[in-house]
TrEMBL record:
Protein name: Aromatic amino acid aminotransferase
Cofactor(s) essential for the protein: pyridoxal 5'-phosphate
Domain Aminotransferase class I/classII large residue range list: 27-387
NCBIfam families: PRK09257.1
Xref: Gene3D superfamilies: Aspartate Aminotransferase, domain 1 (3.90.1150.10), Type I PLP-dependent aspartate aminotransferase-like (Major domain) (3.40.640.10)
Length: 394
C-alpha cells in the first residue's frame, strides 16, 4: 500500500530554510520563513508568555481533557480581542484550533459541509497553504486580482471587478490585515467598498487574521474584520496567536463563525463535530497562556507593550529599507516597502534576480521576491539594499 504513494512536491519555504542552514557563509541573511526576529536575530518568548507559563506551572492541577470547542474562557477572550463586542455574543460560535492553519482548515471543511458547490475565491497571490488546502479538500476555487506589481499596492480596481462577479453563497477568502505575501492592504475606504460588494453579491467572507497587532496596531488591524462582522449576515474568521503572542509551536488558533442567533447552536454543534473528527480536543497549553494574559490587566499591558515594540521595530526597518533602496538604486521604485504592513513585502524583482541574491550575496528570500522584514536589522538593511541594486544593474 505505502508503495503506491506518490512523491509530494517540496515546500518551497521549508526548502529555503534547509538551503540557508547548509550555507557556510558567515554573512548570509535569512529573509525567508515567516517568524518574527528581534534585532539580534532571535525569536524571543514574550515576557508575558514566560510569566504566564510560570504561573500556570504553579496553579495547574490537572491535564485532563479540556472542552471539545476549547476552554470557553479562551474562546471568549479571543472573541473580545478580535471583535471587541462589535457583534452580539448570541451570534458567535467558535472552536479552538491547532494554530491559524487549523482554523483555516476547519473553516474550509465547514464550508464544504454547508455548501459543497460554493466556490472559494482567493487573492492572487495568497499564502500558498490557502491554495493547497482548498485544492486538497477538492473545493471549487477561483482567484481574484489583488496586487499591482507595478505600484506594489492593492489592485483595487481589478479586485472590485472580480468580486462583483462572485455568486451568492460563494466564499471570499480575505487577509484581515498584513497580507501575506505582498504586504499590501486595502485602505479603510477600499475595505468599505469590499464590504458593500460582499453585501450586494451575498458572498460570505472568510477572514484570515494571522497578524493582528503586526500592522497598524491591535485595534486598527481588527477594524476590517469588525466592519465586515457588523455589516454582513455571515462571517467566518480564522485567527492565529502564533505571531502576536510569539507561540508558533504551541499551535494556538481559533475559528469564529458569525451567523443568525437562531442558528448558533447548530453552527456550534458542527464546529464541535469537525474538531471531534479531525483531532478531538484542541491543544490547550498555548490557549491557556493567551487566556491568562488577556484576562490579567498587568500581563495584558506588558504583552501589548512588547507587541508594540515588535510592530514599531518592523516599521522602522521598513522605513530604513525603503530609504536605503532609494539611495542605492537612485529610484523610488521600492517606496512601497515603507507603505506595506506586516512581516512581508513583495519586492517585485524576477525569480532570476532572487536567485542571484542567494547565490552571489547569501540573501535568502522566497522565489516570488517575498522578504521577511523582521529578518533584517540595522546592519543588514544597507547590505540588502546594495545587493538588490547590484543585481538589478545586471
Ligand atoms: N494565515 C496566514 C496568512 C499565515 O501567514 C499564517 C502563518 N504563516 C497562518 C495563517 C497560520 O499560522 P499558524 O498555523 O502557524 O498559526
Amino acid at each position: 500500500m505505502l508503495t503506491a504513494l506518490k512523491p509530494q512536491p517540496a515546500d518551497k519555504i521549508l526548502q529555503l530554510i534547509q538551503m540557508f542552514r547548509e550555507d557556510a557563509r558567515a554573512d548570509k541573511i535569512d529573509l525567508g520563513v515567516g517568524v518574527y526576529k528581534d534585532p539580534t536575530g532571535l525569536t524571543p518568548v514574550m515576557r508575558a508568555v514566560k510569566t504566564a507559563e510560570k504561573r500556570l506551572w504553579e496553579v495547574e492541577t490537572t491535564k485532563t481533557y479540556t472542552g471539545l470547542a476549547g476552554e470557553p474562557a479562551y474562546n471568549a477572550a479571543m472573541a473580545k480581542l478580535i471583535l471587541a463586542g462589535a457583534v452580539a455574543a448570541d451570534r458567535v460560535a467558535s472552536v479552538a484550533t491547532p494554530g491559524g492553519t487549523g482554523a483555516v482548515r476547519q473553516a474550509l471543511e465547514l464550508i464544504r459541509m454547508a455548501s459543497p458547490d460554493a466556490t472559494v475565491w482567493i487573492s492572487n497571490p495568497t499564502w500558498p497553504n490557502h491554495l493547497s488546502i482548498v485544492k486538497y479538500l477538492g473545493i471549487p476555487m477561483r482567484e481574484y486580482r489583488y496586487f499591482d506589481a507595478e505600484t506594489g499596492a492593492v489592485d483595487a480596481e481589478g479586485m472590485m471587478e472580480d468580486l462583483a462577479g462572485v455568486k451568492a453563497g460563494d466564499v471570499v477568502l480575505l487577509h484581515g490585515c498584513c497580507h501575506n505575501p505582498t504586504g499590501a492592504n486595502p485602505n479603510p475606504v477600499q475595505w468599505l467598498a469590499i464590504c458593500e460588494s460582499l453585501a450586494r453579491t451575498g458572498a460570505v467572507p472568510l477572514i484570515d487574521l494571522a497578524y493582528q497587532g503586526f500592522g497598524d496596531g491591535l485595534e486598527m488591524d481588527a477594524a476590517a474584520t469588525r466592519l465586515l462582522a457588523t455589516k454582513l449576515p455571515e462571517v467566518l474568521i480564522a485567527a492565529s496567536c502564533s505571531k502576536n503572542f510569539g507561540i508558533y509551536r504551541e499551535r494556538t488558533g481559533i475559528l469564529i463563525a458569525i451567523g443568525e442567533a437562531a442558528g448558533r447552536g447548530t453552527v456550534q454543534a458542527n464546529l464541535n463535530f469537525l474538531n471531534r473528527q479531525n483531532y478531538s480536543f484542541p491543544p490547550d497549553h498555548g490557549a491557556r497562556l493567551v487566556t491568562m494574559i488577556l484576562e490579567d490587566e498587568t500581563l495584558s499591558a506588558d504583552w501589548k507593550a512588547e507587541l508594540e515594540e515588535v510592530r514599531l521595530n518592523m516599521l522602522t526597518l521598513r522605513r530604513q529599507l525603503a530609504d536605503a533602496l532609494q539611495a542605492e538604486t537612485g529610484s523610488n521604485r521600492f517606496g512601497f516597502v515603507a507603505e506595506h504592513r506586516g512581516m512581508f513585502s513583495r519586492l517585485g524583482i524576477t525569480p532570476a534576480e532572487v536567485e542571484r541574491l542567494r547565490t552571489e550575496h547569501g540573501v535568502y528570500m522566497v522565489g516570488d521576491s517575498r522578504l521577511n522584514i523582521a529578518g533584517l536589522n540595522r546592519t543588514t538593511v544597507p547590505v540588502l539594499a546594495r545587493a538588490v541594486a547590484e543585481v538589478l544593474r545586471g
